[in-house]
Structures are given as C-alpha cells and as structure tokens.
Amino acid sequence: MIGTALSRLLLQQGYDVIILSRNPIETASAYKASSMQNSFRPSGNIFYARWDTEKMFIDPQALAQADYIVHLAGEGVAKKRWTKKRKEEIKKSRTTSSELLVQSLSNQPNKVKAVISASAIGWYGSDTGTPFKETDPVSMDFLGETCKAWEESIEQVSSLGKRLVKFRLGLALSNEGGALVEFKRPVRFGIAAILGSGNQMYSWIHIDDLCRAFLHAIETPALDGVYNLVSPQPVSNKEMVLGIAHAMNGKMFLPFRVPSFLLKWILGEMSIEVLKSATVDASKIQASGFNFIYPNIGSAVRHLIG
Fold this sequence. Notes:
The chain contains twelve helices and 14 strands.
C-alpha cells in the first residue's frame, strides 16, 4: 500500500523508481507494465528488478543505478493471527531484508546516498502520561522487540558512510488498504464499530503526508536518525470511528461497542495493539521543516472519504 502510493508521488516529482520484487514479471504485471524481457524491466520511469532474501541476492544493475533506497519490506503485522510461527515470520521478514541491503551495499559498487527505512510506533508501549518521543526506551513486548531488531538490522548502513533515516510509522490511513478499509466495512451497513472502551489513543497519519515525508527525507540532506511519523493530533478510537461514520453516512449510523473480551477472543494477542493507547509526538519531524497537509482527523477523513 505505502510502496504503491510512494511510487506514484516519486514519479510525479520526476524520479525514476526501481521496485525490488521476488517476482519482477508478476509485480510489473500488477502495475500494468509491459515490454518486459530481463530481470531489469523498464516501463516508463518504473523499473522492476529481482531480489531474493533467502538467496541473499539483489540485481546488481538495480543497485548500481540507485541514488536512494526506501526500505518498506516486511510481512503485514495485522494480516494473520499471531501464532509463534507468524511472529517469527514478521520479525524475520524485516531483519533479513535489512541484512541483505547492508550486505549488498557493502559488497557491490553503488552510489547510494541515503537509506530511508520504515519502522513503527510499535517501538513504544502503552501511554505513560506524556507523548512518546524518539528518545524513549523500547517496549519489552512483541512489537517493541520486533521494531528494535528491525532498526538494529539496518543500522550498519551508517557505518558505510550512507545517511540513514528511520521512520517510526503510525497508523497509515488510505483507501487502498490498512486500518481505514477495515473501519469502513461495518459503516457500510450503518454500524460504527467502536473497539473496546474507544478511549485508546491512536497515532495516525494520512497516506499522502506519509509519502511526502519520505520524499522530504530523500531531499533533505540534514535529515538523519529516528523520526516519529504521525499526525501532530492523535485521536481516540471513538473519535476516529465516528469521524469516518459521519463522513460516509452523515447521521445515518448506529454506534456499537465491540467488547474487549470479544476482540481478544477473535484476534488473540494481536488485540493488545488494537486496544492499546499510544500517544506519539510529531514535533521532531516538524522541526525538520516538514509540514502536514492533513494534521487533524477531520481534514484527513474528508479528503479520503468525502
């Protein structure tokens, strides 16, 4: 979802985009590309190149052409129930792909100036009374440990003389996938599903602002280190759900609370993240010169739904 939206923005800004895929032909087909012959496949200003984290391989031509690398790879956290096997897949998909990038940048000729790597606000635990800042310690739970391993696995890029930016992403709101799509489903039937108490705070970001921040990281040489990438105005689950319902149905909906015990039964351990309150501070990215187009949930929802 993020990669597709970011590719669109980069193309609009005149960049060439190389998409790394285990199956370049299938990926190119999904992007409605044509005229594909080799592993390095041009389609307009988009190119499709192969990488394989199991074989620790990246198309050397793709790496040689790149000025910047955006690292978004990783199994979806919310796609499946968190079994022990699934947890291992989530963590390994992030760390192995980082290790491949580090190894390739170390061993292959390249002109890469910077690596912009995704992380997540799962780094932080539940609210402690003040908004979380980048200097706060990691939470000792599954997502916290995963984010810590994820960030550490890409850290060696800095020792290679490359600028490294790590974005801790909040809840990304997009019509093309993720949380917003799930929140909209019951509203189509006139139900605004408030999760648990509804008081838990969500630190979120509009997909357009998210992509603009990645572009900001590419084009701002002074940007380095860890940044929270969330809207400056977090909202409660209840505020978000009701805002979405109003935008979709006006007043024609019924608020309905989904009990915490039911969420725990359906989602298992993953329900912790749905019910957790995490208020995250956005002042550091703002201080770097980045301005949000959609700083509040009202403007974001009106744009995405209205």
